[in-house]
Structure formats: structure tokens, C-alpha cells
Amino acid sequence: MRIVAALLACLVQAAAAPPSEIDVLIDQARSLPGEFAADGLIRIAGSEKLSTERKIELLGQAYERAAEAQQPFKRHAGVNPPGYAAGFINRAYDQELDGLSLRLRAIEAMLPLDGRRARQMLLDLGSPHPPQVACEDLLVYDVSRYYRVLGRVAAETFTAEEIRKGEPVRLLARFTGTLASAVEIGPAALAIAGAKVKDEDFQALVTAFTGTLRGISGDDRSFSASEQAAAQVQALVVECRRRQISPLPLIEGFRLYLVNNLTGKRCADDDLAEPAGQAFGLAANSSSQQRVGNVVSYFNDVLEIPPIEPIKPDETVASSVEGKVKLDQPCQDADCRAIRNQFQALFFGENLTPHPASYRETSEFRVKLRDFLSAMAAWKEGGGATPAEYFREKVEVFSQLFSLVSADADRDLVTSAELDYLNQNRFQSENAIEWFLPVNMLVGQAGMAPALRGLAERLRDTQDPITAFYAKLELTLPRSPGEIMPLL
């Protein structure tokens, strides 16, 4: 009876024990919208405080919740118009909060825990099949992570007996022999190049891959944004030679792919250069430069070998020139221009002469800073700008302001004003990935800078459940500076 009583007492105490920090975070993560629930569960599953079984459970839940993500694919700017917020958009998508990236992150985290289950998750996911995009579209799809994960699954999840039966080859063939978009070619080539398979199986994979190339055309925006595919195909050529397999069919197939696309319908803005970095309201840069690594030159100088002929000038002439990217013109209304001018006045004097750094420590500067933050709070959406452009402009001002003020107290003012803005705007529901980037930046900055302790507390105490969750997650399971810096 004493033993039974003791066991009952232990059970009562266990039932009355408060949940751990990790358990609280898990419950909070599950209550969030799909992309944030999945991301939070994946990060929590990386904790060393959890058992393998618990990690597997959380990763399975993350994989399922990823289906609810607002954006199905990762994307990035296919062209980079000078002065446009392409860099902001790219960094937003680099958070990998789209449905495909979240599932792939869950699969990668599952690999060392349960390789067979990770493989099944990939099989359930199927091929990515990114859609074609029009010349009017700024963004193209990025499925490079898919093929990196495919390569890992093929290399890490099969038993010796399964390898002997050729199961890894069948997996690779299933997904690299059905390509449909230019954005898949380079990543798939790298997956095949890294395959640890027999020479005859490798040759079969290369042959199937080569056969897909002739059918990929009609999407110049994706083709022009995928010029790095030539260097990635070159890696496959090098592996063919190492295995003493002739690369001629592969090179010939890639040449045909290039010519088909170069002589097809092209976008009118293919030559848009990548702009230099630009601070809000400071030096505007309208110059352009030729894109580095022209695909024709690369093919003729690196890939082409006799008897295959180099690509000739008449094989690069487009059959027609279509439209160009449609963009809203940022900061064209009077309110935005007034904010830009007031921003410049904080750091420049007459004739745009920069104030010395010591000026930022003066009371005059701090009065101007408070006046500027009041003007920012009063600056409302309107003037013809889309909600996305207004949001990007405003958070870029806050970002530049944070980097330029020097005193911790001033940074505290700036981050408080930005947090107030982020917590009360409707862009969260319209574009969750872009809305979250400045939130993520604030959480990361507070985690890296002890002097921003006040910001960390405000983030944890905010009324927005997503912001509060990530602030608490950062406190419990902090990221490394290397994980935070790419966001900034």
C-alpha cells in the first residue's frame, strides 16, 4: 500500500507541475497561422532538450501545417530595376516561410532522426512543378532547395540492400527526368552530379536529364533569371568526364535548350542590371551594368567542345520581343517625398553636406529625430502607392534610420516606433512573408544586442501573437549571429 500511495503522490505532483518553457512554446506555435506554426515547430524540434520521438512528432506536424502557408513556393526577383525594393523582397523569401521550403526544412531535419520517414515525406511531396511566369512578373520561382534535399535523401536514406537493388537511382530518375522549368535545370544537374551511384546508372540519369532539356522553353523570365544553370551543368560535365562517360550528348542537349530559348519570345527588359545598394532618400543610383556571366559566352568559352559548334550570333536572335515587368513607382506622392526630404535633413546640411558623426549625439539631432518619428507615425497609406509599396518604403526608412543613429537610446526610439507600426497594420494578412521580415529583423537585433533589452521585452509583451511568440522563441532557443545577419 505504501508503494501504491507513493506512486499516486508522484503522479499527482507530475500532473500539477507547470508546463516547461518548451511545452509553452509548442502550444503557442500550434496556434499560429500555418507558415509560422510550421517554422516555429521546426525550430523547436532542433532543441537538444527534446527526445528523438518528440522531435519526429513535431516535424511531422510542421510538415502538415506547411500546407497552409500563404505562398506555395520560394521566389526571388527575376530582374532588378534600379531603385526598386527587389532586395527587400528577396530577403523576405529567403526566410523560407513558403509551403515548399517549410516542407523541405522538415524533411531535412527528419533525415538524421528517421531516414525512411524523411524519404516518404519527399515522395508524398512529389515534384515541385513551378508554374511559368510572364514578362510582366517581377518574381520567378526558386526550387533549388528541393533538389539539394532530393540528393541528400537519395544518399542517406537507403539500406545496403536497397542500394544494391537500385532504389536511389529510381528515386533520382523519378524527379530529375520530369523537369518542366528553366529554374529546375541547374539544381537538378547538381543533384545528379553528386549522386553516389554506379557509372551505368549515372549515365542513365544524365541521359534522362538531357532528354528533358529540349522541352523546356516559353518562359523567358525564368530562363533569363537562370543563367547560373550553365555553370551547374558544367559540374555535371566534369563528373561525366571523371567517370569516363562522354559528355557530348549532354552538352549538345544543353546547347539546344539555350538556342530554343534565345530564339524564342524574349522579355523586353532582359538586360536590366542589378542595382547597387541604396539607402532610403540618400544617393539615388540610376546607372546600369551588363549582367555578369553571359550564358552564350560561358557556353562557347567553357562548355563547347568539338564536334559541337559554338552558339552563333544568328542563334541568339529573338523571334519576338514581349512585354516588360510591371512595377509601381515607389515614393511618387507628396507625403512620401516629404518624408524622404525630412529623412535627408537628419543627416545632411545645406547642399547635402553630411553632418559629422558627432552631430548625432547632440540635443538638436534628438529633437529632429523625435519630430521625424512623429511624422512617420502620421504618414498614412495613400497617394496612389499600393499597400505593398507603402509598407516596403516605410520599413526601409526604419531600417536605414536604425543603422544610422548611434546612441542606444535613439535606437530604442526607432525600434519602438517601428514595432508600433508593424503591430497595427493590415499588411500581415495580405503578405505574411514580407510583413514578417522586419519583425524577424527586430527579434534578431534584440537577440544580438544586449543594449536593446527594452526592445526584447516589448517584443515579448506585444499584443501580436506572432511577434510575441518569436521573441520568446529567440530567448529560449536563440539563433546564431550567422543565422540572423542575412536578414539585416
Explain this structure to me?
With 488 residues, the chain is mainly α. It contains 25 helices and four strands. Helix 10 packs parallel to helix 12. The chain has three domains: 43 residues, no CATH class; 251 residues, no CATH class; 154 residues, no CATH class. About 7% of the residues have low confidence. The protein starts with a helix and ends with a helix.
Estimated structural class: mainly alpha
Report the end-to-end length measured between terminal Cα atoms: 63 Å
The biggest beta sheet is recorded as: 2 strands, antiparallel
Number of separate helices: 25
Question: Uncertain regions: pLDDT < 50 for 5+ in a row?
Answer: 4-17, 273-293
User: What is the 3D form?
Assistant: globular
Strand fraction equals under 5%
Helix content: 55-70%
Strand sequence of the main sheet, in spatial order?
A: 1-2
- Mean of all residue-level pLDDT scores: 90
| DSSP strand tally | 4
Number of domains: 3
Topology as a string of helices (H) and strands (E):
HHHHEHHHEHHHHHHHHEHEHHHHHHHHH
Query: What Rg is obtained from the alpha carbons, in whole angstroms?
Result: 26 Å
